[in-house]
Amino acid sequence: MSIITIKNLSYQYPISESDALKDVSVTIERGKLYALVGANGGGKTTLCNVIRGFIPHFYKGDLRGEVLIEGKDIREWGMGELSQKVGYVFQNPFTQISGVKDNVFEEIAFGLENLGMEPGLIREKVDQVIRMLEIDYLRDKNPFELSGGQKQRVALASIIVMEPDVLVIDEPTSQLDPKGTEEVFKIIELMKNKGKTIILVEHKIELIAEYADYIILLNEGEVAMQGSTREILTDERALTFGAALPQYSLFGMEMRRRGMDLGSIPLTEKEAIEAVKTWMKKGVNA
Amino acid sequence: MSFLTLTNASFAYPNGYKAVDRVNMSFNKGESVAIVGQNGAGKTTTVKMMNGLLKPSEGDVVIDGWNTRDYTTAQISRKVGYVFQNPDDQIFHNDVYSEIEFGPRKLGLPEEQVKANVMKAAELAGVVPFLKDNPYNLPYSMRKFVTIASVIAMDSSVIILDEPTAGQDLPAMERLANLIETLNQEGKTIITITHDMEFVVNNFHRVIVMANRQVIADDDKRAIFWNLDVLERAMLKQPHISRLGYSLGIGHNILAIPELADELAKHK
Ligand SMILES: Nc1ncnc2c1ncn2[C@@H]1O[C@H](COP(=O)(O)OP(=O)(O)OP(=O)(O)O)[C@@H](O)[C@H]1O
Ligand SMILES: Nc1ncnc2c1ncn2[C@@H]1O[C@H](COP(=O)(O)OP(=O)(O)OP(=O)(O)O)[C@@H](O)[C@H]1O
Ligand SMILES: [Mg+2]
Ligand SMILES: [Mg+2]
């Protein structure tokens, strides 16, 4: 059953002269991880803002077409109700901080507090998320006095703790060190395994190749391609629409160009290792 | 001859937290260097000391013979330009042109020179099509380029870029690489903080690694990316292709695709 259905969606910002989204149609299935990719300015954040109802509830502009969350049109959802259904992690972690709490623990607890949850339960949930994101050492720090990557972890924690059915996450790893980036992907996978539906904007294509079920490729406001991760990443047209290919695939293509064809084009590290090992064995036997 | 030197420089924030502890770094004029390292290592704090936004609580930062203690941030900004990690901390005008023009105008440059600097910076950063736009209506990635242009327009001899690669697509990465190279060829010293290891492999030789308030390595990229102990301590990973070489047990210094292919050709 699809949880989000978007049909012929077009959107123009209030003072803008052209559409930022053009005739977008996508169906999001429950419990899957969708990577929203594409060139800068392609409309990724704009589409996120539609799915969380920020457009049209706060940004006016001109919205056409249909956006259904659990069958109900986005225009009919109340913002309070919708924000519990769809959690949104901002692209710029610096803008996510509420500004009303003076330590990280309370910052993460803020959303649950607003729901009127019982304090003991809040503490339990916040503790759990803090452990998951390995930010216990930040617990008593002022949210404004954090490094970029630390803020980004806190921003993600403050949404995950709410346990919304749908997580819309706009570039959650852009400020993270490489190890932190991989950890966040593992956390996202964990959320998926709990049945959450995830829409993830991300540029790090090697990790998308490893974790995403589907890819939606936006280019200049249009859905240029959509399909399973493998389908999209092995289609060279993706390149012409501003998508990157994994290093592992580029390596496979280079081998092919040099007459050392690995037999298939690997997408992930694991596939690349397998492919090279098989290729080496064949070489010895031949 | 070192143009910019940090000697045992430490910094503690007003709340008492020591973010940088006795750091030593030195840069020659015209060098291009990458700084990498774990979140919270102290990278941003360190570079803010280089342009005088923060003054060391202990130790010295000396730029072209000036000790930053003896000069104001405004004076130092003529020598060292800093592009903030968060573009929204830097942008405060309602159109891109005014944003870029602000710095050189404040320097008191003649009108013609201001205009020339703005246009050159805007072209290098690729923001010419947006000069009339409100920066806040631009996507995050482009706002970052607006702030880069603002700093280039000041024409300082040192330019520091804090996480310019965050959230950038391929063409933007190429634009970044190209502007770093161009400014470097003009003799400027460029210091780039990034978490993108592939970007480091493609664009730099010298790499400084920070972890836990200190510099833990300062070396050529090949030495850095095959020093697993240093990488581990700084929460870094080898570049993807190096990792593949490592997992396959071939090549102990591979950084890029052609090198891996060369190595495999030998094994066949
Ligand atoms: N508030 C706004 N007013 C007018 N136009 C806007 C506004 N916000 C975004 N746009 C425009 O909408 C288009 C899509 O922007 P969006 O931020 O959705 O892109 P994106 O794919 O998220 O890019 P990035 O990779 O840089 O984050 C861009 O042309 C942008 O200039
Ligand atoms: N204004 C502040 N007040 C107190 N502590 C701060 C402040 N800003 C940063 N810190 C702390 O100083 C340490 C170093 O922060 P800094 O921003 O220099 O790290 P960084 O290496 O740039 O990290 P990142 O890669 O996440 O941007 C962090 O532990 C951070 O929490
Ligand atoms: Mg965006
Ligand atoms: Mg930083």
TrEMBL record, chain A:
Entry-linked SUPFAM superfamilies: P-loop containing nucleoside triphosphate hydrolases
GO CC terms of this entry: ATP-binding cassette (ABC) transporter complex
PROSITE patterns: ABC_TRANSPORTER_1, ABC_TRANSPORTER_2
InterPro entries: AAA+_ATPase (IPR003593), ABC_transporter-like_ATP-bd (IPR003439), ABC_transporter-like_CS (IPR017871), ABC_transpr_CbiO/EcfA_su (IPR015856), ECF_ABC_transporter_ATP-bd (IPR050095), P-loop_NTPase (IPR027417)
The keyword Hydrolase belongs to this UniProt entry's keyword annotation: no
The keyword Transport is assigned to this record: yes
Keyword tags: ATP-binding, Cell membrane, Membrane, Nucleotide-binding, Translocase, Transport
ABC transporter domain mapped to chain residues: 4-245
Topology in the lipid bilayer: Peripheral membrane protein
Main location: membrane
The protein's name in its UniProt record: ABC transporter ATP-binding protein
Species of origin: Paenibacillus solani
From TrEMBL, chain B:
Domain of life: Bacteria
Pfam families xrefs: ABC_tran (PF00005)
Residue ranges annotated for the ABC transporter domain, each copy included: 4-237
Subcellular locations according to the entry: Cell membrane
Entry keyword set: ATP-binding, Cell membrane, Membrane, Nucleotide-binding, Translocase, Transport
Membrane topology of this protein: Peripheral membrane protein
Principal cellular location given in the protein's record: membrane
GO cellular component, one term: ATP-binding cassette (ABC) transporter complex
Entry-linked PROSITE patterns: ABC_TRANSPORTER_2
MF terms in GO: ATP binding; ATP hydrolysis activity; ATPase-coupled transmembrane transporter activity; cobalt ion transmembrane transporter activity
Family note: Belongs to the ABC transporter superfamily.
Full protein name: ABC transporter ATP-binding protein
The organism's taxonomic lineage, starting at the top: Bacteria, Bacillati, Bacillota, Bacilli, Bacillales
